[in-house]
Each structure stands twice: as C-alpha cells, then as structure tokens.
Amino acid sequence: xxxxxxxxxxxxxxxxxxxxxxxxxxxxxxxxxxxxxxxxxxxxxxxxxxxxxxxxxxxxxxxxxxxxxxxxxxxxxxxxxxxxxxxxxxxxxxxxxxxxxxxxxxxxxxxxx
Amino acid sequence: xxxxxxxxxxxxxxxxxxxxxxxxxxxxxxxxxxxxxxxxxxxxxxxxxxxxxxxxxxxxxxxxxxxxxxxxxxxxxxxxxxxxxxxxxxxxxxxxxxxxxxxxxxxxxxxxxxxxxxxxxx
Lengths: 113, 122
Hints:
The complex is a heterodimer of chains A (113) and B (122). Chain A has 113 residues and is mainly beta. Chain A contains no helices and 13 strands. Chain A has strands at 4-7, 10-13, 19-25, 30-31, 36-37, 39-44, 51-55, 59-60, 68-73, 76-81, 90-96, 103-104, 108-112. In chain A, the strands form three sheets. In chain A, strands 2, 6, 7, 8, 11, 12 and 13 form a seven-stranded mixed β-sheet that branches. In chain A, strands 1-3-10-9 form a four-stranded antiparallel β-sheet, with no helix packed on it. Chain A is globular and about 40 Å long. By secondary structure, chain B is mostly beta strands. In chain B, the strands form two sheets. In chain B, strands 2, 4, 5, 6, 9, 10 and 11 form a seven-stranded mixed β-sheet that branches. In chain B, strands 1-3-8-7 form a four-stranded antiparallel β-sheet, with no helix packed on it. In chain B, strand 9 and strand 10 form a beta hairpin. The N and C termini of chain B lie far apart (39 Å).
C-alpha cells in the first residue's frame, strides 16, 4: 500500500497570510502514460464529508477559489492557500488514486492564529 | 447535480452485520466513467477506503485486503443504488461511513454521501 504522510499535523496561520501543507507518498503516484500525478487534496469541515479542492496534483476543482493551489510531482506535493480566510479553517487531506487501495494522509488541522 | 443519500442503522451489535445503502440521484450506478465506493473515518484509522463496485461491460468489485473476508458491496440497478455489508463487526468497526463517487478520469471522489455514524456496541 502507498503510505501518504502529511506535515504538519496542525498549523495556525494569521488571516490573510499564506498556509502551506505538505504531503509525501511512499512511492511515486505519477502515471507515466499520461504524465499525470494521481494526487488529490480535500477539505473537511466538522460534520461534513470531505470536499475535493485539487486533483492531478495541481488542477483546481470547479468552483474552488483560486487562493487554493497545488504543486508537486512524483512523491512530494504541496497545498497552498495564498491568503487565509476564516472559512478555510478545516482539516485538509491528501489522497492518491494511483493504484488500489486508495489511501489518504492523516490530515492537517488548519486554524487561525 | 449528483447527490448520494445514505440510509441504514446507526447502532449494530458485536458479531452482527452492518448494512448501509447509498441512493444515487443525478447519475447512474451503471455509469462506466465512475466507481461507487465506501469509505470510513474514525479517530484511530483516519480516512480508510473500504471498497468499490463499478460497471465496465460487466460488474466488478474491489475490496481493501484487511476486510476482504467480511465485506460485500453490491449495486442495485433497479433502484439506482449500491450497498455495503460488513459481517462480524467488532467495536473497531465503529466509524462514520461514507459512500462516494469516484470519477475514473481524474481519480477523485467528487461526490459524497452525508455520512452515517455507525456504533458497534451491545
């Protein structure tokens, strides 16, 4: 199984500042035939299911604000929020879909400083 | 707009069977561009993918290795829904269970059910 490891486990950022969350996979999730990384980022608020923000490591899901961006390739990935808003307080998870079983990172708790 | 509506009991006794259903609106369980998955979430295990059913000329299933002997996921085309059965449950199976659609093209769970907290207790 591919192990997804996020850092940090929790993060406190001031409103308007940049937040950065990292995700490392135990093996590459880059699918060579189409050169796409099968890595997604999700946001989860209390009492709600996860919501997809980013797929293919850097493609923003429709309707997601452009302050959210993803980067990285192979085994190392980053989710950035350029200017933190109050509504961004949530848990964030990375997830791979390179092969079965799909696995998720342990989550990062993003709070306001 | 695709919506997934979960139903099923929130309390199951140890050694019994956990059964949940996920009704689909706005899409078809036979959609060959999607898979229909179950995921659970608990403080001890985090988000854990359990398995899926999908149609590609015929029906297919995949399950996570640790649950293969206890889990069944089945489609119901007449009701446009799919179900989860987990046998011989223990308190370790206590979790919030989600159904979700995965889009094959992007590999993302783009639509989720509302979640069902299932507690295994006598």
